[in-house]
Amino acid sequence: MTDQYQAFAKSPIGKFVIKNLGLPAPTFLDRFDSATPVVKGAVLVGAAPAGTLSGAISQVLANIHANSYAGNNVELQQVAATQGLKLNAFNDGDRESKFKAVVFDASGIQNSEQLKELYNFFNPVARQILASGRVIVVGTTPETAKTVKQAIAQRALEGFVKSVGKEFKKGIAAQLVYVDEGAEANLESTLRFALSPRSAYVSGQVIRVSKADVIDVDWVKPLAGKTAVVTGASRGIGEAIAHVLSRDGAHVICLDVPQQQADLDRVASEIGGSTLAIDITAADAGQKIKEAAVAQGGVDIIVHNAGITRDKTLANMKPELWDLVININLSAIERVNDYLLEHDGLNANGRIICVSSISGIAGNLGQTNYAASKAGVIGVVKFTAPILKNGITINAVAPGFIETQMTAAIPFAIREAGRRMNSMSQGGLPVDVAETIALFASTASTGLNGNVVRVCGQSLLGA
Ligand code: NAD
């Protein structure tokens, strides 16, 4: 649905009214377009002394042919040169240059005093980042730090990045990427995502990259040859997921309830996919999913997107509403995963991706059933990730306010509050959730396992 306030905010009269009343001013966010490069503009790179990730960062920037700049940091220039990255000179007294992205290797920060490196690097350029720009800080996973002081300093990065996300406005998104020791070569899919408009509505997030096999991919079609099953694919977020995974090269099996057959057929025909009209709560749903993918070489990716809300305060909630929501949103996911994992139903390097919700992180009035189910989904991810084998990974996205039929049905005042109470001052689009799912689905994302990334424009809910 259209955001009329956003359109108004762009008009001359709207700009005047919003400025004078101090109202939120939503920027039109850049979104992915295959005709544009990963980063449309200059990238400024910085690093604290003795960082261990500048090589990996430089490698990615070289691979995407980023127009990269750095200040007078000899160590960084030398590391970049070894990766074939040319860093143009940037004098931090230059107030004219504008950057589309700023990437800082914070892995060298060993203690809290050295956090000043962040200040020294970002303070002079804080006003020089373009609209829909990106701030990315890359650090060492605190749990793998060599000393307690280093772990504390690395943990501190989170507060810095989340504050930048709230402060910079203009649709600028800030992310923190923690990299385990030895996982440098697994960084590329995450960095590409965080740099690009694919992460338009993802901000203030922490993404953890762990060490895993490195698989080379065609970055234009990272899912070529893969088969993906998307539940709830006939409309809304599921429809967008089906489109994005298909764009990335996958054959998509679109799953939804039989009542949705017409829309399911439409979506599948738009993307050259196939359909599976079943209820995911059926006892044999896992088996049906496995069988549906046999002709395509088995399931490589399963996206558990189907979900419902049945909101009532706890005192007014009928038991069947509790049961329905828990069964569809949580128990069905557990049963399907159990079946696929126990019956060889997921190929090696398979991907399980769940759709949670910020309601499952923060809780929400009238949503005890829904929030319990969506917090349970986070539990599925956290407790399944460590026991997976054969390169299979599991991750989740937790959407905030996304413009769909579900949110269009919310009463006006609550809807406006949900839309504006985030760093982007607007709702996200189904495609924003789909792009984040595509990051986890990517064949290159071997190092992403057990992550929960919110797609919420850095919503204040559960912040
Ligand atoms: P939607 O209602 O538009 O679509 C959900 C789809 O799931 C429908 O096509 C429906 O038929 C299908 N479905 C429901 N029960 C099913 C079952 N038993 N078996 C098979 N399919 C079933 O909702 P949406 O807004 O696109 O949401 C998609 C997911 O994102 C849900 O899990 C939802 O909880 C989550 N989410 C949405 C938002 C938002 O703002 N829209 C925010 C947070 C989380």
TrEMBL record:
What InterPro entries does its record include?
A: KR_dom (IPR057326), NAD(P)-bd_dom_sf (IPR036291), Sc_DH/Rdtase_CS (IPR020904), SDR_fam (IPR002347)
Task: Tell whether Oxidoreductase is among the UniProt keywords.
Answer: yes
User: Pfam families from the xrefs?
Assistant: adh_short_C2
Supply the EC number(s).
1.1.1.100
GO function term, MF aspect, one: 3-oxoacyl-[acyl-carrier-protein] reductase (NADPH) activity
Give UniProt keywords alphabetically: Oxidoreductase
Segments forming domain Ketoreductase: 226-400
For whether the record's keyword set contains Oxidoreductase, the answer is yes
- Record SMART domains: PKS_KR
The record's PANTHER family line, in alphabetical order, gives: 3-OXOACYL-[ACYL-CARRIER-PROTEIN] REDUCTASE [NADH], SHORT-CHAIN DEHYDROGENASES/REDUCTASES FAMILY MEMBER
Q: What is this protein called?
A: 3-oxoacyl-ACP reductase
Species assigned in the record: Acinetobacter tibetensis
